[in-house]
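Researcher: I'm preparing a figure for a lab meeting and need a structural model of a single chain. I don't have an experimental structure, so a prediction will have to do for now. The sequence is pasted below. Please return the structure as tokens so I can convert it later.
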Amino acid sequence: MTITLPNGTTATKRMVEYSNAIQKASKPSYVQGDYVAPVQEKIEIDLTSATVVIGHRYVLRIVYKDLYEAPGQFTHTY
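Model: Understood. Here is the structure written out token by token.
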């Protein structure tokens, strides 16, 4: 199957998946609700009461839920 992309080029799609056909007597239904846009999570970390010792290493690990890597594999140093 050949499809036309928005930029005008074409691409070949090897496999097309279809859902089950709706039967005449099946009486399909749906649930309609208000759209709620996703919101970024906000986390505040308060270290004002922490006792910092010179020479010790402190690590803050943040695991992102929306990355495809295994938890903990994506790292960033601040």
